[in-house]
Design goal:
By secondary structure, this protein is mostly beta strands. It has a single domain (17-206), classed as Lipocalin (Beta Barrel), CATH 2.40.128. The chain has helices at 77-84, 195-206, and strands spanning 17-21, 27-34, 38-53, 62-73, 96-106, 110-119, 122-137, 143-154, 173-190. Strands 1, 2, 3, 4, 5, 6, 7, 8 and 9 form a 9-stranded antiparallel β-sheet that branches. β2 and β3 form a beta hairpin. The longest helix has 12 residues, at 195-206.
């Protein structure tokens, strides 16, 4: 997929395409320090969304994605229930987290996607460091693209504040969380784009 080359030409319907994230072959993983000694890892399997590849106008490419928080797995059912509780993700009131891109920069193979991440109703700007893993064709003859993305966040920025002080000093749960995503996206029908749509996107980018 194109990602960053500057272009001032008007995009056409033929140069734009939509890629739907395949939840069956995509996941989001996280790791957080436990007792300041080791890392606890978990994953969300309910990843969905749409990538718009702007073709000849790659600076206008975009991503909208969601993660079903109820699909959380860490390998310990008791810990999973605690993470789903109001102490952390509060799944009953916030069953999903979302990401919507604002800008994309970099090369075709390695680029950065900056956008708004919303967890538990709190929205913060983050930047994903993304590697494009290439294109393939699945058994049904559909074009498939693969991506790996990483970022790091402070969980307290999103209202995930629960912790417990340790007798020897420090805290039970670390504040910094590393996030890694493996994404497969399947190409859909071309997205019809008009000159007015293209100008509106450019105007939004300048705001």
């Amino acid at each position: 997929m194109s990602t960053v080359a500057e272009s001032h030409s008007e995009p056409t319907a033929q140069t734009w395409s939509a890629w739907h994230i395949d939840p069956r072959h995509s996941l989001a993983e996280f790791s957080v320090r436990h007792m300041m000694l080791s890392k606890v890892r978990g994953r969300f399997t309910g990843v969905s969304g749409t990538i718009i590849d702007a073709g000849d106008d790659p600076k206008s490419s975009s991503v909208k994605a969601a993660i079903d928080v109820t699909t959380l797995i860490t390998g310990d059912p008791q810990r999973d229930e605690h993470l789903r509780s109001p102490d952390f993700f509060d799944v009953a009131n916030h069953p999903s987290m979302t990401f919507e891109s604002r800008r994309i920069t970099g090369s075709r193979e390695h680029f950065k996607v900056t956008g708004d991440l919303t967890i538990r109703g709190q929205t913060r700007e983050i930047t994903l460091d993304v590697t494009f893993n290439g294109l393939g064709t699945d058994p049904m003859g559909r074009a498939v693209a693969g991506f790996t993305a990483e970022t790091q966040i402070n969980r307290k920025d999103f209202g995930l504040n629960w912790n417990m002080a340790l007798e020897a000093g420090g805290f039970l749960v670390g504040d910094e969380a590393k996030i890694e995503l493996e994404v497969e996206a399947v190409r859909a029908d071309p997205v019809p784009v008009t000159s007015a749509d293209a100008q509106e996107t450019r105007d939004a980018d300048r705001d």
